[in-house]
Design a protein that fits this description.
Shape: elongated
Number of domains: 2
Strand content: 25-35%
Largest sheet: 12 strands, antiparallel
Radius of gyration: 39 Å
Amino acid sequence: MSREEAKHVTVQRSVRTFNRKPEACARGGRARLRLAVKRQKPGQPLNRSRSRGLTLMELLVVVAVMVILLGAALPLLKIGLAGRRTREVSRQLSTYVELAKSVAAETGREAGLFLQVDALPENGLPYVSEVFLAETPRPYAGDVVGARAMRLPNTNTPYNPNDVTTYPRIGFDALSASFSYLVHSGDQIKFDYRGTLYTLYLHTSGDIYFNLYPIPPSLNDVPLPPTGVALPYQIFRQPEKSSSAPLELASGAVIDLSMSGFGLTAENRFDNVIVNNVATIETESVVIVFSPSGQMTRVMVNKYDRANDLQMSVSDIPTGTLHLLIGGIDGVLLDDIGNVIVGDDLETNIENPDNLWVSIGHQSGRATTAENGWTSDDGDPTTLSDHTNMALARQFAQSSEAMGGR
């Protein structure tokens, strides 16, 4: 076929195509017709695009590689998340300290932090996962003007500093009917609006006792009001848990009270009294109290004696920095006699370098955050001197440069 004949055949095919589908070829009316001619070489295969998928074997190899990489990255990710969790809790706790001091300055009365204490069921060890604000109610002086209190004779003699029932007794008149549910053990009373402050002790028998704190060894050291004389009074109540929403620590993060306490020794911990992994005297709450000037004036530890069904409140006057260890609930580990449990698969909060110390100065009330610089005194990770290493960690926290709660 000649070149002219081939051209003629191509034109005829284009005309037939236009007659079948004029709308596909017409543009600008039937006056103009544009024909696109595509030449196809004889024997040339059609240009069809094909996408090739993965075989089952290739897909299994990719999945296996992803699983291996993820398994290698998970430990690093876990460490990073744990560090972020403790840093966030330290920031929140430092902020709450400043908030409590601002409330005390605004109201002119003591305020602080109310640490709600829980205990692990398997070993009875105390920890804190919720922190409330603590605010001091107004002093109580009776329900109406003219209320009186009176020292009563106590026939339970001789005086024993270790037996509350031998302390001086006190009674209140009918104008103080709200006393029973407004006043608690540990509150302080002042007679005749002047003179000495005495600490109140509410016994389960219903009797109310009072004494100086710290308790003197002899009644001869106590300036007591006269027996049988009705006097006006004021009761200065302890800071109580605020009704506002608490600070809930990040999931799994706690304040480890078994490792926390005053100064550079481990003697002032907030431990429960544990017998056979059961807390017989358990700490229910710890209240860190600040004055309107911002100083940490006292730390109140409220305990419950199960054997004697007795509520106890002890106020410690701080003479050093208060150290609170921020860690994980899975690191609250001690045995029956108070030794840290250490093993290949166990890590206590005092051992974990990712944990943090929040230290509160007793004079300035300032909260600082420092790394947990735990070191074993004998270099052997399978043995540990509890008191020695806790003291070293607190010393490191106190001497370290504050991180600013980062």
